[in-house]
């Protein structure tokens, strides 16, 4: 049993639970997250076909193998530390991590998407966010509404309040109030 399998399952079930709440318009539910939450939002977007939108910033677990080559920060450093002790376990580790690859979830998504990325992010390298963005909704058969905002001089925090304002403006345009 893997921690992230439970997290992803819980995130998908959270969408189903939110949709049953009084006062919630089930057709206007979006997945939103930053870092680990961004990776989970992408997983939800790939597993829940009728989301209204997905808003992702600095997504974790996107472009995992490349991230392991680029950084020792955060969880990628933990994976590298594990593999430094468990020599020869790379193949098994990569096979397991492939189940969590955010780019794979992004490819299956359908909802309009808004991405944010700090180009100096050492925790979640920007190449992972771009990989997810570039392949987003690839398997849907339609060109999705998607956009990405890059912050060249920011790290994991990305655009902070500036980006949140952009997200809210975008969300209001994509999922307008009834």
Would you write up a description of this structure?
The mean pLDDT is 96. With 178 residues, this protein is an alpha/beta fold. The protein has helices at residues 3-19, 36-47, 64-70, 74-85, 90-98, 102-108, 126-135, 160-174; strands spanning 30-34, 53-57, 113-118, 146-151. It contains 8 helices and 4 strands. The protein has one domain: Rossmann fold, CATH 3.40.50. The longest helix is centred in the first third of the chain and has 17 residues, at 3-19. Strands 1-2-3-4 form a 4-stranded parallel β-sheet, sandwiched between helices.
Which features would summarize this protein structure in a list?
178 residues; 4-stranded parallel beta sheet; 50% helix
Topology:
Layout: H1 3-19, E1 30-34, H2 36-47, E2 53-57, H3 64-70, H4 74-85, H5 90-98, H6 102-108, E3 113-118, H7 126-135, E4 146-151, H8 160-174
Parallel strand pairs: 1-2, 2-3, 3-4
Low-confidence region ranges: none
Round the mean pLDDT to the nearest integer and report it. 96
The CATH topology assignment is Rossmann fold
CATH architecture: 3-Layer(aba) Sandwich
Number of domains: 1
Assembly type: single chain
Strand content: 5-15%
Helix fraction, binned, reads: 40-55%
Short synopsis of the structure:
This protein is of the alpha/beta class and 178 residues long. It has eight helices and four strands; from the N terminus they run αβαβααααβαβα. 50% of the residues lie in helices and 12% in strands.
